[in-house]
Amino acid sequence: MHRAAALACLAILTTACVPEAATSQGRDVAWLYNIFMLASAGVFVIVIGLLTWSIIRYRGQPGRDVEMPTPTRGNVTLEVIWWSLPAALVVVLAVLTVGVLGQVDAREDDPGVVVRVHAFQWGWEFTFPDADVVVSGTAADPPRIELPTGETIAFEITSQDVVHSFWIPRFLIKRDAVPNRPNRFDVVIEEQGTYGGQCGEFCGLLHSRQLFEIDAVSRSHFDAWLTEQQTDR
What is the pTM of this model? Predict the structure, then answer.
């Protein structure tokens, strides 16, 4: 039992492997992940604990007759318990998952900023249609953009050639960039800082170098950056 408990604690500690979420949607994803890990640890402790107890309790030893457990037949209460508990757990996890997916996939009718993301081998092009600003970069010179915190950012994602994947680990959300099939997700960045992003789908020789960076700043700083980009054209 001590070993089972130690392994369960190790499983719980793996929840720390999730990057700290920098978006409100990412916090929901991290919360759901932690719930799944705790549920998995609980099931693990129960199953391994019962197996360990059975092995120790009924193991054979030299000079000792093996004590066989009394067989049980037709125990309706036991059958209901071992069916209902796993079923209830699955239902609860499914309901929580649907709820979080609904929040993550929600789209705001009037987002604060719209960013059109165009992926290509091996780089990114970011277009701000409301400001007529375009920022692009390649594997040799990855692009860097700024976005405001505290308001909805809508990423509209497409691809020029093959399937890419727009991924910012700290956002805890990833969306495929597919040719001729626009994709979108909305996030609210809660913390200022620099967030690295990359392609999360193998797309060719320079896949690992298809990077970009996002500087999350205040609204006033973002507006000044947009003005600077318009002036530098």
Answer: 0.78
